Input
Amino acid sequence: MESTLSRDEIALQARARAFSQAVVRPRAAAIDRDEQYPWDIVKALAEAGFVGMTVPTALGGQGRSFLDAVLVIEEMAKSCTVTARIVVETNMGAISTVMAYGSEAQKKLAARLVLEGDKPAICITEPDAGSDALAMTTRADRRGDVFIINGRKHWITGAGVSRLHLIFARVFDERGHELGIGGFLAARDESQGLRVARREQTMGLRGMPEGQLVFENLEVPASMAVLPPSGFSRGFADLMNAYNSQRVGAGTVAMGIAAGALDHALEWAKTREQFGRKIGEFQGLQWMLADMQTQLTASRLMLYTAARSRGPNGSAFPDPMLAAQAKIFASESAIKIVNDALQFFGARGYSRELPLERMARDVRMFTIGGGTAQVLRTLVASKMLGWKLPQTRDGYSPNPSLRDAAE
Ligand code: FAD
Output
C-alpha cells in the first residue's frame, strides 16, 4: 500500500503512527471511561502540527492535501476514535468549507481558531430534519447589517467544546422572502443566543460531546454569511459539497478503527493457544484474517482514491460519487472487521479491560453520521442512472429550486 504514497506522505504517516502510539494510545481507555473531551490531546495535536494541516500556508497552516489528513486520521483511529475525529474536523468539514467559500476575514478567523486547536462544529441536523436536511426550520432573518438566527439543532459534534460554529439555516430577506439555505459562522457565546441545551447519551465515541444547540435571536453580522459564488439560492449544494471531504474523513476513521482491531487480532492469533496449538493455526480463523485484511485493503484504496479525487466543475473537494462509495464500503466493512476481531479474543474480547469492545461501540456510528449508508446509496444510484431521485412520495418540495440545488 505504501508504494502508492510519496516519500513525504510516508514520512508524515510514520510521524503520525509514532505520535499515536506514544501519546494517544495510553489515554484512549480513560477518554472513553471519563467521557471528557481530551484537551491534553488537543494541545499535543496542535503542537505536533496535526490540526489545521490543510489550511493554506498564507494563513499559518501547512497547505497539506486531504490525503495527508487521511494518513494521519487512520493512525490516530488505530488508537483512539475521538482523537481521530478531532483530526477530521480540524482539517476537513467546516474548516475546508470556509477555506473554499469564505471571505478573507472568515478564513483568518477560522484558521486562527483551528490552529489553536478549536474543532469547529457543523450544525445541520434538526429533530425533524435528519436525512431530509432540506426540511430544516432554523431560520436566519436579515435585519440591516445582521442576520437573526432562531432554531434548534441536535446531534452536533463538539457541542459545548467547539468555539466556531457553521450554522445552516433558511435565509429570509428584510421583506420575509425566502432566499435559500445558507451557512453562517458564529463563535460560541452562551450569553449571545447560542445555547447548549443537552448532551446526548451515546453508545460510543464518549469523549466527544454530541449535543443539542438552541439559537435564540442569535445575532450574526451579515459579513459572517459563508456565501459561495452561486449565492443563497444554490449555495446549499455548494456548501454541502464540502461535506465530501468530511465523508472521506469519517470513512477513514472507521477504516482506522478496523486496522487497529485487526492488529490486535493478528497478534492474539499468534499468541493464544488452545488444543496445544496457536489459534492462528486453525483454518477457520485464518480465513477470517484473510477476509478482514482484504476488506481493509479495499477500504483503504477506495479512501485514498476518493481523497485524491476532485469533483466536477473545478471543485476543491473529493468527487461525491467516490466519497460516498468509499464511506459506505469502509464504514460497513469496518463494523464487520471489528466484530470479527473481537471474536478472536473469546470472552476477553467482551471485557472492558481490552479495547475491542470500545472499538465495537465506536465503529457502529459511521454508517449513520455524515449521511447514512442508505442515503449515500441513493446518491450513488442517482449518479449512475443520471436521474434526480426525490425522496418525497410525489417528488413534491415546498421549495423546488432548493431541492434541485441540493441534488
Ligand atoms: P433519519 O433521517 O430519521 O433516518 C432514519 C433511518 O431511515 C436511517 O436508517 C436512514 O438511513 C433511513 N432513511 C431516511 N431516509 C431514507 C431514504 N430516503 N431512503 C432510505 N432510507 C432512508 N449532524 C450535524 O448536523 N452535525 C454534526 O456534527 C453531527 N454529528 C453527528 C454525530 C453522531 C455521533 C451521530 C450519530 C450523528 C451526527 N449528526 C450530525 C446527525 C447525522 O447527520 C444524522 O443522524 C443523519 O443525517 C441521519 O439523520 P437521522 O438521525 O435523523 O435519521
Q: What stands out?
A: The radius of gyration is 21 Å. Residues 122-125, 130-131, 155-157, 205, 210, 365, 368-370, 372, 374-375, 378, 391 surround flavin-adenine dinucleotide (CB under 6 Å).
